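thread from #wetlab-drylab

HS: before we spend reagent money on co-crystallization trials with 1,3-dihydroxyacetonephosphate, can we at least see a predicted complex? here's what I'd submit
DV: go for it
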Amino acid sequence: MRKKLVAGNWKMNTDSKSGVELAKAVATAAGTGHDKVDVLICPPFVYLTTIAQAISGSAVKLGAQNCYFEKPGAFTGETAVSMIKDVGAGYVILGHSERRHVLHESDELINRKMIAVLEGGLVPVFCVGELLSEREGNKTEAVLNTQMEKGLAGISESQLGQVVIAYEPVWAIGTGKTASPEQAEEAHAYIRSWLAKHYSQAAADKMQILYGGSVKPDNAKELMAKPNVDGALVGGASLKAADFVGIIDAAKSL
Ligand code: 13P
């Protein structure tokens, strides 16, 4: 059985005080771990070190929200994978819709970052998902196919074993409009069948595929109860300790 992963993407939120408070509350809830649920938080870069200290001794895992694909050098404002590893983070969110659509990251750039993260020994949380217009135009599977084909280009089956995928329909992010459990399941099943076709059934069966987009304590359980939904990537609700803990508890109750 695949372990569930409940991940918090803090985006460009918190400050050092509120971030530490939030991280400590999550660490208390996660304790020393759970055999069926992992917990991950992804604070802004500048707080990674402080948050690493705040969660030390707990089972909470730490991730970054982005990286650059080059090794350390003259790349003003960028952050290398080795630096993320150095401060104790094990995951990097890549391909998030805000980076695709607000920062205009291409599939090719995301792919270079994916390869850098895997070569650096960290776990990419690779986000895919369609716009509302694409869903309404029945293009969801075509969009997912392109994002997967380009984003995972050159990634071997053994490297794929280190990847987490997050399906985040753009129309559900920060809008309060969650995909129904059936819509999420349909997209997740498509992603898993895509992986089976392009890699192997065994690789697809092992893959953790998270759902993201307005996940809250009151809808988390029915989403994560679907057979192909292996956890949640949570934005807004990961900023309130009680809500995020509620989502962790929903995963534990399954
Ligand atoms: P919300 O949970 O705020 O909709 O954000 C989802 C998301 O983008 C997580 O990466």
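DV: Strands lie at 4-9, 37-42, 61-64, 91-94, 123-128, 164-167, 208-212, 231-234.
HS: ok that's useful, forwarding to the group
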